């Protein structure tokens, strides 16, 4: 269950660096003239991504991010975006660095405000084919635009992609190495503590539905830490399997494990849909089915922060999630 | 209720071009360009009239020119065409059904388009093909409506009932499909179902303009027979109108118009219902002039709804479909009620 | 229809009712063998199967019984009072009016869920009032078609408002979708008990109104001749119908077409429109349809569930079309 073969795959999302030399062949009219400062850096790179290949000025200064994961990972690479889409919650996620407060909000992840983006005169725009495919032509007219195929589950590949687009491959590799190292360290400590075989169940309570996460972003963090999953939550094919299943109360027994990690949707979710997440949780957890789960009986149910485990979706979030594994399982 | 009952609100008056307010159409014709231009000025950054004009004709710096010509103009053109198509479609359907409450929103046409669209979103078709899927859905729903009621007369009750039934079934199926969508596709489905003009480009504008170019002239050709039809089947037959053929033609043209509109903008509700009423109020019973007026009013309504949605709750942008539903619908209900009383 | 035939029909309805009740206890998103279900009914509380059956399936079966009967009887009353075969809680806007009011009251104003039924009552009555006003505003007065269209438009408006409320309250698409259709999932047996007196009073009222409605069916003049006050009867029947629909909305959310379809089926089976018989049979067949839809929904998309409201619409809407096409409609 270890990620080493995947790390090899990271570089498979190819980046062809073409030194565009001194010619201003790239579309970025406002390309920063920092080639002299950065020494050996080329003035433009060609990035291969979900929508084709795009020339991006090296290194772009004014970056616009169209997704939670992009914002997170760009910050991790040491760049503060000039514009980013609204977080899913009312405020920025608590784990993000303070620089996030300087970022201008440019609409939502589902409907970014093209005019506001244009007004920022970005050097590069980072989005995803999943969310923004239809907007690609217009975004490309504003600035060179780089899309990942999807979001969430592919977050590590995406970190490399953003690193390429920002001309910061080294920083990208360092960030990923640091994450893997942290994951390996936690795995080793779990082994020491005799908890390597702990089966961790991952569930999320929302106002009107309850989910078990199998893979996806949160599942990948558990996997990297070397943790096992209960029988009902294991998948044969990581890439093909559905990321989550939505369950009804009758299937509460499938939520069992040695430890149950519970994501509770933030308060704002509680305002939607005539249901209240507290109400939902109260209803589910007061059943004798829930009370009978072995993790519940053993007192091994922990609430985890869903902005770390699910909403953030970038490498900073993943690292924060690793920290919480340490806090919860390695006291 | 029998099919021979005369239409409640529309017609009954002599069918000839009779304008209650002669200047009304002129006013409308002037209002539309003004509305379009206003929409070009307003956005997340507002432009002065001169700046907007300069950007429009190409004498402006890069950023303004791009915002006006690259972003706002295709969006406004799409809005105008969508509104015009919906307004015209409403006139045809209300005339055909001889009922002032008929519209593609409640007759299953829009719901059919929505169903096809969410299925297409679930199958991850490229966004450019989404309008095609939606238009197909609208066409299929209308064809079903026709087949189910083909033995009925040209107008009337059966079509309405069958339409409401198709709407309900299609809408239930939409819910079912949405509930089964993979997580990543949900956002796209919800955005589409809200009825929005967000980031519409020239491809969308062209698609709906082509539909309009086909549908609107056909609507004008049919509108004369429509005004005869509104007198009742017997009188219409007496006047030499072939009921069955006219019905098929009316349904088809109404479906094309509503179909392209829904296809590019999603289900923007209540425009097809409301625009014909306002038009009749201004220029009198169904005629070519009413049709033109309804198209212009529909265009104005959608453009206004889009601007209001973008600005009123900024930075949260509301889709135009939500604005027409939240603000337009209650007003419309009130109007329908009041006018009916007279 | 002879007494024997009538008894036969009643017997069949009772058998059908018993069958769905048994199926509703035996079938769910978790498959339990029949022996285990039987054992669960008498068994100890430790068993998972026992908890699933007693804590989850029995409450939702009870909720389905009550909601189904209420909707069906409400449909009979409305069809009788308006002398309109298409009148029903959903087509008059009552269901969506009630649903909208519940969202406003419980989710927005934060009122306790116990007021849901009264909110639904007020919302339903208001929506029906608007639909009726709209339908009677034409020159030709109230016609069945105008009523249906008015109700459809009012429902569309309310649905749009409900969606708008949810959108303005921010977010994530995937949380609101379940509220678009009614469901029996997660019903609490405790929620049914406080409503029971209301249900009993309303059902008794319906029984008393059956005679006057029969008189009304002969035409207003005949009814006056028989000593009835048509307006008063209509008003009372309308109020009782809205109350019953409100109970159903409070229990199960907006569920369409049960109120429309069941009275028609009952009349067709009885080959009679006598309200007392139709009421009785409808009260039995309503739960058959609703619970039947609920059971299909539980198994159609395992491990998750499809809401009963979606399936009643899928079953009921074609019936509306059939009514429209078959009957020399509605005069």
Automatic annotation (TrEMBL), chain A:
Pfam families: Peripla_BP_2 (PF01497)
InterPro entries with a match to the protein in the record: ABC_transptr_periplasmic_BD, Bact_iron-sidero_bind
Gene Ontology biological-process annotations: iron coordination entity transport
Signal peptide: 1-25
Keywords in alphabetical order: Coiled coil, Signal, Transport
The organism's place on the tree of life at top rank: Bacteria
Residue ranges annotated for the Fe/B12 periplasmic-binding domain, each copy included: 62-331
Family membership: Belongs to the bacterial solute-binding protein 8 family.
Designated name of the protein: Iron complex transport system substrate-binding protein
Protein source organism: Blastococcus tunisiensis
Lineage, broadest ranks: Bacteria, Bacillati, Actinomycetota, Actinomycetes, Geodermatophilales
UniProtKB/TrEMBL annotation, chain B:
Protein keywords: Cell membrane, Membrane, Transmembrane, Transmembrane helix, Transport
Family: Belongs to the binding-protein-dependent transport system permease family. FecCD subfamily.
Localization: Cell membrane
GO BP terms in the entry: siderophore-iron import into cell
Membrane topology label: Multi-pass membrane protein
Protein name as annotated: Iron complex transport system permease protein
Main subcellular localisation: membrane
Matches recorded under Gene3D superfamilies: ABC transporter involved in vitamin B12 uptake, BtuC
Originating species: Blastococcus tunisiensis
GO MF term set: transmembrane transporter activity
TM region positions: 23-43, 76-97, 106-123, 129-148, 160-182, 202-223, 250-275, 287-309, 316-336
GO CC field: plasma membrane
UniProtKB/TrEMBL annotation, chain C:
Membrane topology (UniProt): Multi-pass membrane protein
Cell compartments where the protein resides: Cell membrane
One GO process term, biological-process aspect: siderophore-iron import into cell
Molecular function GO terms recorded: transmembrane transporter activity
Annotated TM spans: 12-41, 87-108, 115-135, 147-168, 189-210, 235-266, 278-300, 306-325
Main location: membrane
Pfam families assigned to the protein according to its UniProt record, in alphabetical order: FecCD
Signal sequence region: none
Secreted listed as a keyword: no
GO cellular component: plasma membrane
Protein family (similarity comment): Belongs to the binding-protein-dependent transport system permease family. FecCD subfamily.
Protein name: Iron complex transport system permease protein
Taxonomic source organism: Blastococcus tunisiensis
């Amino acid at each position: 269950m270890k990620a080493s073969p995947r790390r090899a795959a990271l570089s498979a999302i190819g980046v062809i660096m073409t030194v565009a030399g001194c010619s201003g062949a790239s579309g970025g009219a406002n390309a920063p003239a920092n080639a002299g400062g950065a020494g050996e850096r080329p003035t433009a790179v060609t990035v291969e991504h979900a929508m084709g290949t795009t020339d991006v000025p090296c290194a772009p200064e004014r970056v616009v991010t169209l997704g939670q994961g992009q914002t997170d990972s760009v910050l991790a690479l040491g760049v503060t975006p000039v514009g980013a889409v609204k977080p899913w919650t009312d405020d920025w996620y608590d784990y993000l660095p303070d620089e996030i407060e300087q970022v201008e909000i440019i609409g939502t992840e589902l409907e970014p405000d093209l005019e506001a983006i244009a007004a920022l005169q970005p050097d590069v725009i980072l989005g995803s084919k999943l969310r923004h495919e239809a907007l690609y032509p217009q975004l490309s007219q504003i600035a060179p635009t780089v899309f990942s195929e999807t979001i969430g589950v592919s977050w590590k590949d995406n970190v490399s992609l953003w690193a390429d687009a920002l001309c910061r491959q080294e920083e990208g590799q360092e960030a990923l190495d640091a994450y893997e190292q942290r994951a390996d360290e936690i795995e080793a400590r779990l082994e020491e503590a005799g908890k390597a075989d702990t089966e961790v169940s991952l569930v999320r309570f929302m106002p009107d539905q309850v989910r078990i996460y199998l893979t996806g972003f949160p599942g990948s963090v558990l996997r990297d830490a070397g943790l096992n999953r209960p029988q009902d939550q294991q998948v044969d094919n990581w890439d093909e399997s559905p990321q989550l299943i939505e369950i009804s109360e009758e299937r509460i027994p499938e939520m069992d494990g040695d430890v149950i990690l519970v994501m509770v949707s933030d308060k704002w979710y509680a305002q939607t849909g005539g249901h209240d997440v507290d109400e939902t949780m109260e209803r589910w957890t007061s059943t004798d089915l829930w009370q009978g789960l072995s993790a519940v009986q053993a007192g091994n149910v922990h609430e985890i922060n869903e902005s770390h485990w699910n909403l953030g979706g970038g490498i900073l979030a993943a690292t924060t999630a690793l920290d919480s594994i340490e806090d919860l399982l390695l006291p | 209720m029998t099919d021979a009952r005369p239409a409640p609100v529309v017609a009954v008056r002599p069918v000839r071009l009779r304008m209650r307010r002669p200047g009304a159409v002129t006013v409308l014709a002037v209002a539309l360009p003004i509305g379009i231009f206003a929409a070009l000025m307003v956005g997340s950054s507002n432009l002065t009239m001169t700046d907007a004009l300069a950007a429009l004709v190409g004498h402006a710096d890069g950023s303004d020119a791009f915002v006006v010509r690259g972003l706002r103009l295709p969006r406004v053109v799409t809005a105008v065409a969508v509104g015009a198509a919906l307004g015209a479609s409403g006139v045809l359907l209300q005339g055909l059904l001889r009922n002032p409450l008929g519209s593609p929103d409640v007759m299953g046409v829009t719901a059919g388009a929505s169903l096809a669209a969410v299925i297409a979103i679930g199958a991850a078709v490229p966004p450019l093909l989404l309008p095609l899927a939606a238009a197909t859905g609208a066409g299929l729903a209308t064809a079903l409506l026709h087949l189910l009621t083909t033995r009925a007369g040209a107008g009337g009750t059966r079509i309405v009932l069958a339409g409401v039934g198709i709407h309900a079934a299609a809408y239930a199926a939409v819910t079912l499909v949405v509930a089964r969508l993979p997580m990543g596709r949900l956002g796209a489905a919800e955005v589409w179902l809200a009825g929005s003009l967000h980031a519409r480009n020239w491809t969308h504008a062209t698609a709906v303009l082509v539909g309009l170019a086909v549908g609107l002239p056909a609507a004008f050709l049919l509108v004369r027979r429509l005004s005869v039809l509104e007198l009742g089947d017997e009188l219409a037959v007496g006047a030499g109108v072939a009921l069955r053929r006219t019905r098929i033609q009316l349904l088809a043209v109404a479906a094309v118009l509503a179909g392209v509109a829904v296809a590019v903008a999603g289900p923007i509700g209540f425009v097809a219902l409301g625009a014909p009423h306002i038009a009749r109020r201004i220029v009198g019973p169904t005629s070519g002039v009413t049709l033109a007026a309804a198209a212009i009013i529909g265009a104005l309504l959608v453009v206004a709804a889009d601007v209001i949605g973008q600005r009123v709750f900024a930075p949260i942008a509301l889709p135009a479909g939500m604005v027409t539903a939240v603000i337009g619908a209650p007003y419309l209900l009130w109007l329908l009620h009041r006018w009916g009383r007279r | 229809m002879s007494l024997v035939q009538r008894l036969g029909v009643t017997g069949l309805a009772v058998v059908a009712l018993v069958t769905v009740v048994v199926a509703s206890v035996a079938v769910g998103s978790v498959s339990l063998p029949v022996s285990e279900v039987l054992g669960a009914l008498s068994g100890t509380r430790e068993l998972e199967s026992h908890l699933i059956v007693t804590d989850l399936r029995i409450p939702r079966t009870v909720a389905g019984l009550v909601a189904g009967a209420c909707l069906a009887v409400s449909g009979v009353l409305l069809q009788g009072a308006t002398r309109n075969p298409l009148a029903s809680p959903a087509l008059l806007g009552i269901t969506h009016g009630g649903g909208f009011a519940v969202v406003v009251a419980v989710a927005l104003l934060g009122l306790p869920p116990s007021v849901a039924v009264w909110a639904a009552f007020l919302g339903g009555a208001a929506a029906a009032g608007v639909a009726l006003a709209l339908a009677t505003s034409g020159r030709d007065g109230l016609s069945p078609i105008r009523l249906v269209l008015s109700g459809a438009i009012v429902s569309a408006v309310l649905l749009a408002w409900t969606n708008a409320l949810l959108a303005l309250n921010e977010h994530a698409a995937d949380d609101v979708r379940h509220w678009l259709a009614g469901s029996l999932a997660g019903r609490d047996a405790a929620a049914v008990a406080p409503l029971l007196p209301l249900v009993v009073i309303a059902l008794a009222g319906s029984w008393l109104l059956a005679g006057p409605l029969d008189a009304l069916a002969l035409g207003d003049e005949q009814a006056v001749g028989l000593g009835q006050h048509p307006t008063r009867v209509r008003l009372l029947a309308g109020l009782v119908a809205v109350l019953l629909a409100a109970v159903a909305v409070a229990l199960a959310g907006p569920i369409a077409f049960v109120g429309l379809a069941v009275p028609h089926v009952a009349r067709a089976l009885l080959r009679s429109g006598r309200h007392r018989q139709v009421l009785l049979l409808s009260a039995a067949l309503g739960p058959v349809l609703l619970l039947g839809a609920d059971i299909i929904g539980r198994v159609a998309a395992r491990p998750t569930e499809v809401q009963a409201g979606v399936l009643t619409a899928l079953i009921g809407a074609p019936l509306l079309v059939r009514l429209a096409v078959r009957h020399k409609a509605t005069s």
